[in-house]
Fold:
Amino acid sequence: MGKNKQKGKKQKNVFQLANNKFKRKNKAKAVTATLKHINAVKNEKVENLNQIFTQVQRDVKSISKSVAPEPKKAAQVVREPPKEAVNVDNAAQLFSQL
Structure:
């Protein structure tokens, strides 16, 4: 009976590269190293500024406590009534002249 037997060498695998596992080199990228350095410097600056601002805030609080706020006086606005009555007819006539 007939059996499928391969004679000779096997065919080379067409997908040989796709099946192989490549060893990838893990090199540190220059961009990553630079970004880490920039972030470290930025964090130091932010921390320094935070300390300065907290000190300023404490100073402002201590100054505001030492200076007693003056009581605010209610400003009353007194409006004087118009001395002459408004003449609407005269105003209309002046506008028509323009």
